[in-house]
Amino acid sequence: MTVNENIKTMRERAGMSQAELSRKIDISQPFLNRIERGKKKPTLDMAIETAKVFGCTIDELVYGGQPKEGGVQ
């Protein structure tokens, strides 16, 4: 899964709308929609805030909880 798909999946699992998440991470809902559809990439600041909202690590947000292939284990 991509970071875009992970954000959408985590948001949906939390029962949160795009409008709710966008307010919590201080971006516009249309921008979040473009991120979830893979049209835009999240900024580092946005990824950090999103991870805080979902109580996960950046790695979990980016890689879906799986270590990156070839990365340090």
How would you characterize this protein structure?
This protein starts with a helix and ends in a 10-residue tail after the last helix. The chain contains five helices and no strands. It is globular. It is mainly alpha-helical. The mean pLDDT is 89. The longest helix is centred in the N-terminal third of the chain and has 11 residues.
Give the number of helices. Answer: 5
Given helix and strand content, the structural type is mainly alpha
Helix content: 55-70%
Mean pLDDT: 89
Distance between the termini: 19 Å
Oligomer: single chain
Strand content: under 5%
Shape: globular
Alpha carbon gyration radius:
12 Å
User: What is the string of SSEs from the N terminus onward?
Assistant: HHHHH
Largest sheet: none
**Low-confidence regions:** none
Question: Total strand count, please?
Answer: 0
Task: Put the structure in a nutshell.
By secondary structure, the chain is mainly α. 59% of the residues lie in helices and 0% in strands. The chain is built from five helices and no strands.
Keywords:
73 residues
What topology does this entry show?
Elements: H1 3-13, H2 18-24, H3 29-36, H4 44-54, H5 58-63
